[in-house]
Amino acid sequence: MAKTRHNHLLDTIDDIITSAANKGIVHLHSQGDSLSGSTLRINDRELKHFGTCGYLGLEQDSRLKAGVIDAVTKYGTQFPMSKTYVSSPLYAELENLIEAMYGYPVILTKNSTLGHITVIPSIIRDDDVVILDQQVHASIQSAVQMLKPKGVRVEIIRHSNLEMLEERIQELRSKYNRIWYMADGVYSMYGDVAPIKEMQKLADKYDQLYLYVDDAHGMSWAGEHGTGFIMSQVKMHRKMVLCATMGKCFGATGGLIVFPEEEMRRKVKIFGGPLTFSVQIEPPMLGAAIASAKIHLSDEIYAMQQRLAGKIEFCNELIRQTDLPLVVENECPIFFIGTGMPATGYNFVERLMKEGYYVNLGVFPAVPVKNTGVRFTISCHNSEADIEGFVEAMDYHYPKALEDEGKTENEVRKSFKMPLLSEKATLEAKVTSELTAQVSSTIEAFPEEEWNRLISKNMSVDWKGMKFIEEAFSGNDLPEENWKFHYLMVRDGEGTPVLATFFSSALCKDDIFAQAGVSIQLEEDRKYNPYLLTSQTLVMGSLMTEGNHFYLNKGHSQWEEAVRIMIGKVGEIQESEKISATYLRDFDDNDPQLKEVFHDQGFVKVDVPDSCVIDKLGWKNTDEFLSGLSTRSRRHIRYDVLKYEHMFDVEVVNAPSKEDMRHFQDLFRNVRNRNFAINVFDYPDKFFQMMPGEAGWEFVVLKLKPEFDSNQKPVAVAFNYRNDAGVYTFLLIGMDYEYLEKYNIYRQTIYRTLQQANTLGYQTLRLGISATIEKKKFGASVHPKVAFVQIKDNFNMEQIEQLAVSQA
Q1: For 32-55+302-425, which CATH class?
Q2: Residue limits of the BioF2-like acetyltransferase domain (predicted)?
Q3: Which of 66, 139, 220, 795 is most buried, judged by most C-beta within 10 A?
Q4: Where in the chain are the domains?
Q5: What is the pTM of this model?
Q6: 333: closest CA among 394, 377, 390, 385?
Q7: Range scoring the smallest mean pLDDT among 222-231, 399-408, 420-429
Q8: What fold is seen in the domain 613-786?
């Protein structure tokens, strides 16, 4: 199996968050000798605080502070024992108060994350299945991963899509004991809420369905006794586990889990690992929590809730009077103003901070990268005057942030599927550039010599090769066999090219760069559903070509503007072709300026397969070729290649017969059906039928001599391309796997291609991607490559990520 570097999600997150940190948006430190809750001092500036999760302001309540002081005075800073043996003296009082609030059995944990790790592995059995809401909190998703080594099946459904949930229930209920649907009560980014009433109706309808709901952001500001948003909408269900936190609006710290019956709680207390192995909530925080619970059990909590509700409605009314794109309007204290691209989000946050307001940036992975926005919260700390000034500041700076980044309000609204503004109300992006962009659907629109000079010398095929591919991938029967091409040249006022590239749009498998094991599993499912997890995809270059498909004159003063023009054209293609995923590939990971531009425009970096190139051709004989290799590689070549050289008859063919071409195609499909390092659809018959006699294509054909094999059909063929820009490319390979190991036909094919390129006088041989270890033995230099990816909808990728985790 070919070796492929697979991107780790942590690397992608690192790039995004580091970029935000460098812009002074995240990883900040508050300053000052005290905190009031209404302001934060950051970088020596006093900012009005619109980012807290302490919606009721209880963290500043004098009674909670007094509870801390009294508890620490009496019981110390901590109670360093396992709760399995002995609990702190304050635990029993707090548990009794929380149970009085909910009226059901409760377990308290150090925090809500440990609460999920405690409960989920304890209540879910090997014959259960878990269905995650697409946007359920990361702490639940992390806890669920602990189930996978036990073989528990985990699936994802689209966010709050109960029709999809019911379809999965109907499919799974005959195969599993319990089906657990896990969701949030209030979602932490957009502030939208779970359709809990409908969820409970499904639980009544299907015996197997159980609900696990995290109401961390619904706690305190809603519900009887502040028991949360969920409990404000429904009663506790006999098949629901409800989680919340005391670490946000409640004003203290710690997680709490409410069970529908005592037996379930008893088992969790016995089997819940963190209850045994993690430290307890510290006495000071137990003191604060007890004080808060007493407030929750009094009528005062309702006055606090009403006070906050008035501020939330006041903010909603002010926003209604603007064109600000509020993604979700409801009665929750969480608000999200969409900015679309990260660059606009960065700009907007920076402007608001300079104006004196602190807000949160909602960016990948918390939201899809094109759904970046400003997340802010309303709390009892915010006065109406502060809220009014804040909305005025947003209304003023939002269009200016868009203008700075060359975006329009309707572009943002489209990315969030929101109603569009009328043309008069829409801010149009300023166009001040002297650059011009030429766009075409065919390579024929561009001079052959210029295109080859700028692009073809660094990629596998030239101008003529692209014309061939255009024709081969059009007019075919299957949707995946028809590609559309989009060529772009950006020139300055004097007509000099600043940027040149091309893209292809096609139906692709979403696991194209996934781990091989994931693709193997999906291909089994695709035997019954061939278009499972496939999407319209836009790829820089094409799925046929390899190399650098991107020319950019970094010495030009307007190169960044040229890149932005390209990204603007990409946006137009995305809309017209209904593109779900866009890949800008294959770049060297050594250009921080270009990476920042792509990140700001909503593209995240991922690793893609390495590129292998031999650029030291021109040797006169085998000994001279070997002398250029390392000692270890020379040994490999002699033992694995030259030892078998005499067994083969090799022919270079330009125009094979139809019968031979059909055999070559069968050999190619042998390879394609086994290589999942890059998982793509098969190429159309037309592609192979057009090759014979086509300028640029030639075939290095290997047969075993009669004394080694009586079957005189080719056992391997290299589909090679002679590029007019001076590059010879080993583009595709076909093999008969019956002969692979006995005669080392893969290595032999590479060697014979290398010989042919050298004989023809080429200086550069491109060996394609993957199988880097084998290709290095022949002297290839390996070039790690990255792509910059923009996904319109993360759902398919999250499904693939779940498959990858389950195989880890």
Answers
A1: alpha beta
A2: 632-773
A3: 220
A4: 32-55+302-425, 62-296, 436-605, 613-786
A5: 0.86
A6: 377
A7: 420-429
A8: Aminopeptidase (3.40.630)
